[in-house]
From TrEMBL:
Matches recorded under SUPFAM superfamilies: Homeodomain-like
Domain Transposase IS30-like HTH: residue ranges: 9-50
Protein name: Transposase IS30-like HTH domain-containing protein
Record Pfam families: HTH_38
Origin: domain of life: Eukaryota
Length: 172
């Protein structure tokens, strides 16, 4: 007997389900049904067992992985996303986790939710220069200076700049 090649999982159509149950009621063996339909014997046996126990062959509703966030929590995630456009996925998941009403989720979960809502383009791809926790520290540092000290500071953009006579104050 030739073996049925392993293929990718595919759902059994409702017509095939009815054919399988009809052949079973007609007295055919699971092996013969599997050969005719092109499915494995275990698949046929599982479908017949389900039909004998429940009287139905359709898949049950509500199966599958449960959502990490409720609908309200997903809407709040969108609100946080729009209110903080410079947050990265990591910062969004960190922010949501630190808010006590949300379960801890990984970056890919945040990314998946935002992909479903089609708002990925609003997420920063790189970390901003200052994180939210750095802002109060930066403000405290800046408030520590007085006007006389600010005159001694030199702000630079890391570019070379010649101040002497021969350079004429031009960039290198």
């Amino acid at each position: 007997m030739p073996r049925i090649a392993k293929t990718a999982r595919r759902e059994i159509s409702s017509i095939d389900r009815e054919r399988i149950i009809g052949r079973h009621l007609g007295g055919q063996s699971n092996k013969a049904i599997a050969k005719d339909v092109g499915r494995s014997v275990s698949t046929i046996g599982r479908l017949i067992k389900k039909w004998q126990e429940t009287g139905k062959t359709d898949n049950q509703k509500g199966r599958g992985r449960k959502a990490k966030y409720s609908q309200e929590q997903q809407e709040n995630l969108l609100e946080v996303c729009f209110n903080n456009p410079r947050y990265t996925y990591y910062q969004l998941s960190y922010f949501m986790h630190n808010t006590s009403q949300y379960p801890k989720v990984c970056n890919s979960t945040i990314k998946r939710y935002l992909r479903v809502f089609r708002v990925q383009r609003f997420i920063a791809l790189t970390t901003p220069v200052l994180l939210p926790r750095h802002l109060p520290l930066r403000l405290e540092w800046a408030n520590g200076f007085n006007i006389a000290q600010l005159g001694l500071l030199v702000f630079s953009d890391e570019a070379g700049f010649m101040i002497d006579d021969c350079g004429g104050g031009r960039r290198k």
